[in-house]
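Why do we care about 3D structure at all? Because function follows from shape, and shape follows, mostly, from sequence. That is the central idea of this module. The next example makes it concrete: a single protein chain, its amino acid sequence, and then its structure expressed as tokens.
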Amino acid sequence: MKTSSEKTRRLVTLALLSALVIVMQTIATLFPSVTPVNLTLVPIVVGAILCGASGGAILGFLFAVVVIVAGFTGADVFTFTLLSISPAWTVVICLVKGIGCGAAAGAVYKLLESKNRFLACLFAAMIAPVVNTGVFTLGMLTVVRGAFEQIAETYAVGNAVQWLFTGILGVNFVIEFLSNSVLSSAISYITKHAKKH
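And the structure:
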């Protein structure tokens, strides 16, 4: 049973990390040239480690909502185009990948925490971009494939599947995976130890 102070600490942690998720994703959307690497998954993973899978899911949901709003407003051109062709499926993909990456990070951390806290942090940080990118890729190859192919034609990038794996995922996923793994696990490990003192 959680004490009142533990509940308060959890709420404060989630509130601070929620603000970070919203600000970081908004900046990444509005100023992509300033922020070539999107680090929004970092506070999601930290929240998942500190507040469990449910905390990670809440932060992932907020991440998805910011992406969806940016799409509907036209701030995120790629999402805007997907929404204009396949709105329902685009919203579903955004929500599932956001909620899923946060919940998965929390679940992996809880599973491994008793064995080795640092490895638990590291694997939690690694699973988030895998789930986020995995759900996105699955969606692009199945339920919104037609919309994705139209976007590839619009951008004149040739074969949509090849563009997905070499352009969007080839560079973006690797950078996101590495940066998230290093930063999230380090921040979470430090934060966990700081709580003890």
